């Protein structure tokens, strides 16, 4: 079977060291018997041959679109400039695509055609593993050894498949609740210690005419941040690892309970009506405007609330806490991973100039300086090992300090569900949660349908 046909079939079920640029200097010519003779003053003296700078172009597919990602884009642009300056003739073309479109449509089609961009935004698990298995993504294992970077990351697990490393994480993240600290103080509310206390706070907020939880569910992955954390509390985070192996089922009563709790919150009016028509950015605006008081989101969203151009008067008034456990003093279970980053085309690496550029890009992007800059400017938790004192010194912002505190409170962490299941299952669940929110299907019925999708994906060998 041809490679393109093979990966199309799979995707149907998943959604040099730097080369020296110096030439030898010629200060004279060698005479007979090796005697040195001065150059003939009547002849032109030789000069070092410049390094060949024949122009060549490489494409970087990124997802840094919109105001909320402007700091991440600035970091990428600075790395691009530095890399271009180090590689004669190199010109990068930046190709910006929405994250979800890139993952589920654009990159998938390019991989099926065996023509991915030279450098591209990618999820480590399961995407990079699938593409790497097809020989489309560059194995970075030896390159990281060469650049002395292999042991510098907090975790490369999402990008490691069958012992090979198929990409690098750009940062880390956790999921939890951003909340209006000024409102909490005004109403005498405290950080909840149990899920029941969280619900009581939601009732208080609703009675005050506010929206308890900001939400924009036009894209299914957004509300699933809430659901994923809920079912991980009710059924335990380890259950998600078992869906792909068949050791666990989506119809497990405790998984159903997590989805039913989410549906209960919808029925109680804890989210804005019409959330299925609202974009991801809309829910942040609900918090900024004061319309909503709490919001489940990734820690990466903190950059929105520390930027006066985006958050306005709300800068300094937003805090962060983990979703609380079911019982007081119970284990705090939180989604935490390093699954989003960049991959590199195996085909591009066949060109020595492009391979050199890829190595230079890696050297410039994955540095302590850039990781701390990402934390300071964009609020992205580092994917590389950084001394805690440096982290604290890098960001004294109260919101970031809240996030650091939340990280320290985690007892059990788990990767997001879409790093553990096939793409076809992820797509079905994205649709399914919207059906549950919209009242089209009861959670148990939706999960029964999802289990059938899971079994078909498992049977396919994905």
From TrEMBL:
Keywords: Signal, Transport. Residues 34-49 have a biased composition (Polar residues). Coiled coil: none annotated. InterPro entries: Bact_solute-bd_prot1 (IPR050490), SBP (IPR006059). It holds the Pfam family SBP_bac_1. Belongs to the bacterial solute-binding protein 1 family. This is ABC transporter substrate-binding protein. The lineage of its organism: Bacteria, Bacillati, Bacillota, Bacilli, Bacillales.
